[in-house]
Amino acid sequence: MGRAAPAAAAGKSGNWKDLRARVLSAAVLVPCVALCVWYGGLLYGALIVGAMAGMAMEWARMFGFGLETRRGQLCMAWAACVGIAALAGHWGGALLVMAAAIVLGPALWAGQVAIGCAGLSLLWLRYMSEPGAGVVLFLVACVALSDTGAYMTGRLFGGPKLAPRISPAKTWSGSIGGLGCAVLGGMLIAALLPGALPGALWRGAVFGALVAIAAQAGDLAESALKRARGVKDSGTILPGHGGLLDRFDGLLVAAPMAALLSLGAAGGAAFWYVGLR
Description:
By secondary structure, this protein is mainly alpha-helical. It has one domain. The protein contains 11 helices and 2 strands; from the N terminus they run αααααααββαααα.
């Protein structure tokens, strides 16, 4: 009995042991990403292509092909080529390059497709929709808010596990908290962006929720992959977060969803105006 309280306290404090590293990483990462998104051009293109290459490397490493191997190097270069082709305006060619990655084998090809679709979607949303920077910021912010909200509320309130066989740390309270944060963030961003149309608030809420659900699905999918491969993190490049895949796994699902929705918006408008003609 006498040892139970300290043990419980230690376990509770352990839930927050990575908070400082996460905050410090975010303090560097968020301004850099926001600057690249807002500035656009080659700066944004380089960010996306670099992220695609880095995530492809982490995916290959999870299957035993590190950067020192020929196949690992090829995975990294292949993903970069997909992004570069899109930046050059060859969208069809980018899709063909991505499809041709089947020569790497089914497991590595799946990574090329998942990462390639997300990267191409982020490029498409920035350069082919209006307002490009605002659209990407809405998407990235809602994904980040969902992740941060889930982290904070899950550790504050705990409760039943969301998917204990896939990711024992995730809880229903965290999932709901992340959803709520994304909804509030979506409402705020959609209403404040230049040229906001009537209904921006409720549309921001609805599509903020959709982005959060997609992001959490991507998070669970990556967790399932890591569990199947027997790894804790996809990498170590981001202290407190792990690898690029660990940080941006939500975008692997959310970005393609947003790009598909944008096809239904009139005149290349933001994807949360889908259906308006």
